[in-house]
Design brief:
- This protein is of the alpha/beta class.
- Helix content is about 30%, strand content about 30%.
- The strands form 2 sheets. Strands 1, 2, 3, 4, 5, 6, 7, 8, 9 and 10 form a 10-stranded mixed sheet that branches.
- Strand 12 and strand 13 form a beta hairpin.
- The N and C termini lie far apart (about 95 Å).
- About 40% of the residues are buried.
- About 10% of the residues have low confidence.
């Protein structure tokens, strides 16, 4: 019994010693600088410029004057010119009084310039980094990534990390953008069935402009040009303080940026991929050529089939949409069943046109299958070797499309005079 007590006592002493020595090897939270976003830019010299948006400790001021960092209400941005991601982290660690910690990084931002040159090497670095979570968002900025981070000042949130989380969920409200995680982006990049795409972001400084970069395939009476869903990031006519906005999609071919899609084209993407939760579109009125009818889209369902005719892809999406009218003028208050059917026909033709615009833009202009039609096309091949030999990602540009759409206006939501 005495020997047993001595053994227990020695075990307790050993555990206490292990705990004490272990505590000395653990980095204290007070010695860490938590990064909420990382920006990638390319300098004129060809070297990489990394920008780290670092969360300020609670109650601290916005950074010391005279430092090389820029600050917002709850974070500072520190940049470094370097040869690689890891060397940039080491250089910043040598400058700061704390060690960078990337485990809470919410967004990875690439400028359009560096994305156009190719970001494959950075993707492999990020996906293999032990601290960076695969759930962080990937954003392609139309402006300099450092400028993007410097202007990501939360207006309605006190924490920058929370701000990035909430900003990325706007897809569920508008359908004008799509939240892409690092894991999803890398998976698409490495896949043979699809190409990758990312959220398109920029800084809106309140300068109202609209490039109107839309295809001419829509007839003049049913064009979405100039409507509220035809913008991309930095173009929306919002009068507010300078801040970032995410709107549209950045399209890649391999690891290189090849183009961008606006809000309504993003809705088309969500419809075709069965990712649309809800969205509002403005359909030209069949009653007055100068007016629009706002439709709230729900219950989007799409089934796609891909056939090969003499080696040429023939893609046939079948789409069912439910919609309800959410705005109308007094001229429409006495809507009859005939008028509702007329609106359905206009809505069907309008949606059909911007779906075709999206399909031909991705196939003929960008030559990039971000819709992942490849997962339907693979059924035409008996073996994976035949599939790889066909090279779907290069053959997608030869595709032809036949879109079948049905739009159902849910009339029970309408206020009709009796």
């Amino acid at each position: 019994m005495k020997a047993k007590k001595i053994l227990v006592f020695m075990l307790i002493v050993v555990l206490i010693l292990i705990t004490l020595f272990g505590m000395n090897s653990v980095t204290s939270m007070d010695n860490l600088a938590y990064v909420v976003a990382v920006g990638f830019d390319i300098k004129d010299t060809g070297k990489l410029e990394l920008s780290f948006q670092i969360a300020l400790p609670s109650g601290s001021e916005g950074g010391s004057s005279g430092s090389s960092s820029s600050q917002s209400s709850s974070s500072i941005v520190t940049s470094v010119e370097c040869n690689s991601f890891e060397s940039g982290v080491n250089l910043v660690n040598s400058y700061l009084s704390k060690e960078l910690n990337l485990s809470h990084c919410k967004a990875v931002v690439f400028s359009e310039e560096i994305a156009s040159q190719g970001i494959g090497e950075y993707l492999y670095t990020l996906i293999n980094h032990v601290e960076i979570r695969p759930t962080c968002n990937v954003i392609i900025s139309k402006c300099n990534a450092k400028y993007f981070l410097n202007n990501s000042s939360p207006m309605l949130e006190q924490l920058s990390s929370k701000y990035y989380e909430i900003a990325s969920t706007s897809e569920r409200v508008t359908g004008y953008t799509y939240n892409i995680t690092l894991l999803d982006f890398f998976s698409d990049f490495a896949d043979s069935f699809t190409e990758c795409f990312a959220t398109l972001g920029s800084v809106n400084d309140g300068d109202i402009s609209n490039t109107g970069d839309n295809n001419d395939q829509l007839s003049s009476s049913l064009s979405n040009e100039g409507t509220d869903d035809s913008y991309v990031a930095s173009e929306t006519p919002i009068d507010s303080q300078k801040n970032i906005e995410n709107l549209g999609l950045a399209v890649f071919k391999g690891d290189k940026l090849v183009g961008e899609l606006n809000g309504v084209e993003c809705i088309a993407h969500l419809i075709l991929t069965n990712e649309l939760e809800n969205a509002v579109i403005s359909v030209p009125s069949p009653f007055e050529s100068t007016n629009y009818i706002d439709l709230y889209l729900t219950n989007s369902k799409c089934k796609s089939k891909v056939y090969l005719t003499n080696g040429t892809p023939y893609i046939k999406p079948s789409i069912d949409l439910s919609a309800r009218i959410i705005s109308m003028s007094d001229d429409y208050k006495d809507l009859t069943e005939e008028n509702i059917e007329l609106i359905e026909e206009y809505a069907k033709y309008y949606v059909e046109r911007f779906i075709y615009d999206y399909l031909y833009k991705t196939a003929k202009v960008f030559k990039s299958d971000i819709t992942a039609f490849g997962k339907y096309a693979v059924s035409n091949f008996a073996t994976i070797d035949e599939w790889n030999k066909y090279n779907w990602l290069d053959n997608y540009q030869n595709s032809f499309f036949n879109v079948d759409i049905n739009v159902d206006i849910v009339s029970r939501y309408l206020l009709i005079d009796t």
